[in-house]
UniProtKB/TrEMBL annotation:
Name the record gives this protein: 2-aminoadipate transaminase
Signal peptide: none
UniProt keywords, alphabetically: Aminotransferase, Pyridoxal phosphate, Transferase
Molecular-function GO terms, alphabetical: pyridoxal phosphate binding; transaminase activity
Any coiled-coil regions, as ranges: none
Cofactors, names only: pyridoxal 5'-phosphate
GO process annotations (BP): alpha-amino acid metabolic process
Domain Aminotransferase class I/classII large: 56-386
UniProt cross-references to Gene3D superfamilies, sorted A to Z: Aspartate Aminotransferase, domain 1, Type I PLP-dependent aspartate aminotransferase-like (Major domain)
Keyword Transferase included in the entry's annotation: yes
Species of the source: Sulfitobacter brevis
């Protein structure tokens, strides 16, 4: 019996994903490929107390279908948390989502037609490319650091610009204050939307956080926020990804449009998770766990970069990131193919992510993304030792 074919966009995926799926079977593998938090940072007993209290004390919020746009108490709390002097937010500016991933999906649903243009910070987050692939957009890469980068030209004619300004996934790059201001200015001039995806905004290891583009884009003292930024936050990196709690802060008409799309997606984000998220913020739990997360990840970043300096210095260039979860390294040898390096690395028992998956055209094969948050310093050092063997083998082998 011949069954109906799967949709066309599925043939447009990268075969590296298959390689990753099979990597799960390798015993003793050191996984430096993902973007996973260390489970030891999860406040398990506090969260189980909050979960029990949520069900016992707020059964109608925790166990019923929640409102599509989110529990009012959580929307109010997010509005208050992201308000700053001169920018007024209310719950009308806030949508609760099932993780940041759902926000990406909904943004694609409400803004993209086949062939729509997206100006995307390059290299770009794989999850965003995955979320928008079924809508068949065309990408205009933005290299914010290039001397000739002109934000107004970049944003002209696009449906939206997509950026991860705090320690980008995958590049770990921090977008400077001047670059943020220029992007915001260009969004105002061109009238387009500016998506600010911010899962790593609390993970600053060396300095105080820069202002969000959301804040920079507020027209001072003009009432409720109605600017061009679609800000996305998540609890995945600052508390626990399994809660699947994210939020969008944006102009009220964008929020109501996203609500329409969310209705046909999952109807509502788990009320239990929303209640736990609310109580985690309100009780100070999120603020309480942050210093421990920062010192753990800062030490791991330092351990990874020390091991890279000791072993990989003649093979790769990289910048030490001042936050986030990743180091982005580019091979000195332009002929290095990091898709091939991944296969050698798996053979040596270590997994990293090659740059091809972060390029909408799949062309960039010279860089790798290395995660430093999941493994302890000894494992990171051993992972880099294995990666070095793999890199030398890749260079030695004509492909
Ligand atoms: C840049 C970026 N956006 C969005 C997400 C989605 O996160 P979540 O769905 O867990 O909130 C991630 C996760 O790694 C990310 O790195």
């Amino acid at each position: 019996m011949k069954r109906p074919a799967f949709a066309n966009w599925l043939s447009d995926t990268n075969d590296i994903t298959q390689t990753f799926l099979s990597a799960g079977q390798i015993s003793g593998l050191i996984n430096m490929a993902g973007g996973l938090p260390d489970p030891s940072t999860w406040p398990v007993s506090d969260l189980s107390d909050l979960a029990a209290a949520a069900v016992a004390q707020h059964p109608h919020e925790a166990l019923a279908y929640a409102p599509i746009e989110g529990l009012p108490v959580l929307r109010d709390l997010i509005a208050q948390r992201f308000s700053v002097h001169g920018m007024r937010l209310t719950r009308e500016n806030v949508l609760i989502t099932t993780g940041g991933m759902q926000a990406l999906d909904l943004i694609g649903k409400v803004l993209l037609e086949p062939g729509s243009l997206i100006a995307a910070q390059s290299p770009a987050y794989l999850g965003a490319l995955d979320a928008w692939r079924p809508r068949q957009p065309i990408y205009r890469p933005m290299r914010l650091e290039a001397n000739d980068f002109d934000p107004v030209t970049a944003l002209t004619g696009v449906q939206f610009a997509y950026t991860v300004p705090n320690f980008s996934n995958p590049s770990g790059r921090l977008v400077s204050l001047a670059e943020r201001q220029a992007l915001v200015e260009a969004a105002h001039v061109t009238g387009t939307w500016l998506v600010e995806d911010d899962p790593y905004g609390t993970l600053y290891y060396d300095s105080a956080p820069l202002p969000r583009m959301l804040t920079l884009s507020a027209q001072r003292d003009e009432g409720l926020y109605d600017g061009p930024v679609i800000y996305m936050g998540t609890l995945s990196k600052e508390l626990a990804p399994g809660l699947r709690i994210g939020w969008v802060v944006a102009a009220p008409n964008m929020i109501t449009t996203l609500v329409t799309a969310k209705q046909g997606s999952d109807m509502s984000t788990s009320g239990l998770s929303q209640r736990i998220a609310h109580d985690s913020f309100a009780s100070g739990l999120t603020d309480h766990v942050l210093p421990n997360i920062l010192s753990l990840y800062r030490a791991r970043r330092d351990a990874l970069c020390a091991a890279m300096k000791a072993h990989l210095d003649d093979l790769f260039d990289w910048q030490v990131p001042s936050g986030g979860m990743f180091v982005w390294a580019t091979a000195r040898d332009a002929s290095m193919n990091t898709d091939h390096l991944l296969r050698e690395a798996l053979f040596q028992g270590v997994c990293i992510t090659p740059s091809s998956v972060f390029d909408p055209e799949g062309q960039n094969r010279r860089s790798i993304r290395i995660n430093f948050t999941l493994n302890d310093p000894d494992k990171l050092a051993e992972g880099i030792r294995r990666l070095t063997v793999a890199a030398r083998a890749t260079i030695a082998k004509p492909q």
